[in-house]
Amino acid sequence: MPIDPDFAAALAAHKMEIDEPIALRLQQFAEAMWKLNENLNLTRHTTWDLFVGRDLRDCLQLSPLIEPGEEVLDLGSGNGIPGIPLAILRGDIEVSLAESVAKRAGALNEIIAELGLPVAVYAARGEDLLDDFRFSTIVSRAVGSIAKFCRWVEPHWTSVDRLLLIKGPKWVDERGEARHLGLLATLELRRLASYPLGDTEESEGVILQVMTKWRAKQLQTQAAEGDPGTTPS
Ligand SMILES: C[S@@+](CC[C@H](N)C(=O)[O-])C[C@H]1O[C@@H](n2cnc3c(N)ncnc32)[C@H](O)[C@@H]1O
């Protein structure tokens, strides 16, 4: 299968250089997802320009923030973003997807099978999985506010090291809300990446890392002692 010229043009327009074998896998993902979208309402990003400029941009910003060997859960995977592109971009990590709507989880399973990716799909609420499984990082986009995530994960911080949340410009308001509700008192929130979204000049995407202050301190101590630990700070 050759690279779709419109996909190649969108990558060039957004100044993204991706090795051809990886680009072909990403193309296969987008096409499989769009096919299922006709019945399942998985995405409104149905052009190569939106797929590259929004979806892929977020995934390419997220990818380098994850360490080799990490076990990553995409919570609220929906159309598979960011989890599936992440699994394509990073063969050195283990990706699982959680999607609470059974039909969408079924669609994710179909896409995973078509791409032959070693990714587990759970038709479940992501936070409930933390009763039985452990992940080093939960990644998520467009699922809930910072406050919502703090509440979901609050009883489960022994089952996850950190959250990496992809957010748009409203993240500052969300942080204010979470602070106001006292939900960040024992947590450290850091902005690890910010990048233009291209909608307007001011429109910015960010990747926020949330972890317990206790865990952040532990990682700092490990770094000072020359032990890389399991997740970066
Ligand atoms: C707006 S979609 C976002 C899909 C994708 N992450 C993206 O960025 O395009 C949100 C998805 O999260 C799912 N969802 C919401 N809360 C969830 C939870 N606690 N656990 C698992 N899935 C959840 C919804 O069913 C929906 O499919």
CATH architecture grouping: 3-Layer(aba) Sandwich
Separation of the first and last Cα atoms = 40 Å
The CATH homologous superfamily is named Vaccinia Virus protein VP39
What is the 3D form? globular
Major sheet summary line = 7 strands, mixed
Q: Low-confidence segments, ≥5 residues, pLDDT <50?
A: none
Strand content: 15-25%
The proportion of residues forming helix, as a percent range, comes to 40-55%
Strand order of the largest sheet: 3-2-1-4-5-7-6
Secondary-structure element order, N to C: HHHEHEHEHEHEHEEH
CATH class: Alpha Beta
- Domains, number: 1
Say how many strands there are: 7
Pfam family, one: GidB
Function: Specifically methylates the N7 position of a guanine in 16S rRNA.
Organism: Rubripirellula obstinata
GO molecular function: rRNA (guanine-N7-)-methyltransferase activity
